[in-house]
């Protein structure tokens, strides 16, 4: 695979970091955006707040200056603010959507500039099994992650003629910093619903993202690819 310029948002830890390392191992020059985590060793770390268009623009400019026009973009940055819907504040709902959905829109919009000019590109959005089956206390998170599917499929129709693919990955229960502190009852219930009988890890997701970003996936766009051990089967 030829060396490309890749940008992974939320790449300082967890799934984002695993994706960034997988792309780098494949030969790409990878930049990761970090809001709270320390920049990872061996990767170009760029501060970015996806809720701020100017910050997103600055991050892309820095990546382009270091590695050239971005050809692979993975939108992974996200947040949670869980609460039962009847008690959830409006600010808790809108702030999660601003990061997880509108933040992805800001990132993709900026990334498409160079891809459209180059008539090539790979965009992968990291959604969640929650987008497909819902989860108690995550009306905001589920809505934001479901919105990524409509965003991706609309964009796939718009830019497919320019050689740009747009796909969505929906991870299930993945062992990360976000899930490790969940109560044991929640973890046990999740495990009981996974046909493969184990939790996923970040590398499981990273390998699928690397495939979607590769030349082998050149005829795959607008797809929803579950990486959940069968957890969301049937949705």
TrEMBL record:
Under the heading InterPro entries, the entry gives: KR_dom, NAD(P)-bd_dom_sf, Sc_DH/Rdtase_CS, SDR_fam
> Which ranges does the record mark as transmembrane?
none
Oxidoreductase as a keyword? yes
Among its keywords, does the record have Oxidoreductase? yes
Select a single GO molecular function from the record's annotations and give it.
oxidoreductase activity, acting on the CH-OH group of donors, NAD or NADP as acceptor
Q: Which UniProt keywords apply?
A: Oxidoreductase
Indicate the segments forming the Ketoreductase domain, all copies. 4-172
Give the highest taxon in the source lineage.
Bacteria
GO-annotated biological processes: fatty acid elongation
A Pfam family of the record is adh_short_C2
* Record PANTHER family: 3-OXOACYL-[ACYL-CARRIER-PROTEIN] REDUCTASE FABG, SHORT-CHAIN DEHYDROGENASES/REDUCTASES FAMILY MEMBER
Q: Which family does the record assign?
A: Belongs to the short-chain dehydrogenases/reductases (SDR) family.
Which NCBIfam families does the entry link to?
PRK12826.1-2 (NF009466)
User: Which protein is depicted?
Assistant: SDR family oxidoreductase
């Amino acid at each position: 695979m030829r060396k490309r310029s890749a940008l992974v948002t939320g790449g300082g830890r967890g799934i984002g970091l695993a994706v960034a390392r997988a792309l780098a191992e494949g030969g790409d020059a990878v930049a990761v955006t970090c809001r709270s985590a320390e920049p990872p060793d061996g990767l170009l770390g760029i501060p970015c707040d996806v809720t701020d268009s100017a910050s997103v623009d600055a991050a892309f400019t820095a990546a382009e200056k270091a590695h050239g026009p971005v050809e692979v973009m993975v939108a992974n940055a996200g947040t949670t603010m869980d609460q039962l819907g009847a008690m959830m504040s409006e600010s808790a709902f809108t702030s999660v959507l601003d990061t997880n959905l509108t933040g992805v829109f800001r990132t993709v919009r900026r990334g498409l500039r160079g891809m459209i000019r180059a008539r090539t590109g790979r965009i992968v959005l990291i959604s969640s099994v929650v987008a497909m089956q819902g989860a108690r206390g995550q009306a905001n998170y589920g809505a934001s992650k479901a919105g990524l599917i409509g965003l991706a499929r609309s964009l796939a129709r718009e830019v497919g003629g320019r050689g740009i693919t747009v796909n969505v990955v929906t991870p299930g229960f993945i062992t990360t910093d976000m899930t490790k502190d969940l109560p044991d009852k929640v973890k046990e219930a999740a495990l009981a619903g996974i046909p493969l009988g184990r939790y996923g890890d970040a590398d499981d997701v990273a390998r699928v993202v690397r495939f979607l970003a590769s030349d082998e996936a050149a005829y795959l766009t607008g797809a929803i690819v579950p990486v959940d051990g069968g957890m969301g089967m049937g949705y």
